[in-house]
Design brief:
266 residues; alpha+beta; Split barrel-like; Methane Monooxygenase Hydroxylase, Chain G, domain 1; 2 domains; 3-stranded antiparallel sheet; 9 helices; 51% helix; 13% strand; globular; Dynein_heavy_linker; dynein light intermediate chain binding
Length: 266
């Protein structure tokens, strides 16, 4: 097509999370600067894209720029979080740090926040387990209590009159954090045999790690690179023990270059 803007109705067929693009300039001098989810979330491309030449070529540039933009946003968000909550002793987080975390939750794209939340969880659980020997396992209990505090603060934030999009994000965060707290208390603290990050109850969890300027998702023997496809502000499934087993089956299958086809009401 002579007008690149005509691609807008077909975007969701190529990128499920992208509803539309932001074009600036006149027809002969167009550039693409932002992309939007169906919920209205706006994400800025790392660098403007010129929609010239073959449609396939500049659509590929959109895909590459989408991934690099999300990676950059995630790195910057993680750096900001670590600046807001610099104290590694999760049991003594100051009130202003907790308020800072709540502000941080609403300052970045939903996918970035959900991903970093899981990166931080894996990091803090690993630290708590490493501290088990010196604290007689109290480090894990303290961290479980800290997660409960975060959950309660998130509930308060949802009730404070946030927008529909922010409510969707916070509900997803709440779903993840409730599962995270259950894993820490029921799976790690109540099981006296778990004293190290290398113990199976922890290794069997789906864990996110920021490594080599990217994210690796690990579970048991599987280590899969995060793909950086934009997902928008979607809802989350409630995570049950069956969900955990499903994750383990699928990650193990991918690790062995196989696949899976989940189906059924669960």
């Amino acid at each position: 097509t002579r007008d690149p803007r005509a691609v807008q109705p077909h975007l969701s067929k190529c990128f499920e999370g992208i509803c539309r693009l932001k074009f600036t300039g006149e027809l002969k001098n167009l550039s693409i600067t932002h992309f939007y989810s169906s919920e209205g979330e706006e994400v800025k491309f790392q660098s403007p894209i010129t929609p010239s030449g073959d449609t396939e070529a500049w659509m590929n540039r959109i895909q590459d720029n989408m991934k690099s933009s999300l990676r950059t946003e995630t790195r910057m968000s993680l750096e900001e979080y670590r600046a807001i909550v610099p104290n590694a002793d999760y049991s003594t987080k100051a009130k202003d740090e907790r308020i800072g975390r709540e502000k941080w939750l609403l300052s970045w794209p939903a996918q970035v926040i959900l991903t970093i939340d899981q990166v931080i969880w894996a990091q803090e659980v690993t630290q708590a387990l490493n501290d088990c020997a010196s604290s007689a396992r109290q480090s894990v209990k303290r961290y479980s209590e800290e997660l409960l505090t975060r959950i309660n603060r998130t509930v308060d934030l949802i009730r404070s009159g946030v927008s529909k999009r922010e409510r969707s994000l916070l509900t997803a965060i709440l779903t993840i954090d409730v599962h995270a707290q259950a894993v820490v208390y029921n799976g790690l603290y109540c099981d006296a045999a778990v004293t190290s990050p290398s113990d199976f109850p922890w290794m069997s969890q789906l864990r996110y790690y920021w490594e080599d300027d990217g994210i690796n998702v690990k579970q048991v023997n599987a280590c899969l690179p995060y793909a950086w496809e934009y997902l928008g502000v979607g809802s989350r499934l409630v995570i049950t023990p069956l969900t955990d087993r499903c994750y383990m089956t699928l990650t193990s299958a991918l690790h062995l270059h196989l696949g899976g086809s989940p189906q059924g009401p669960a």
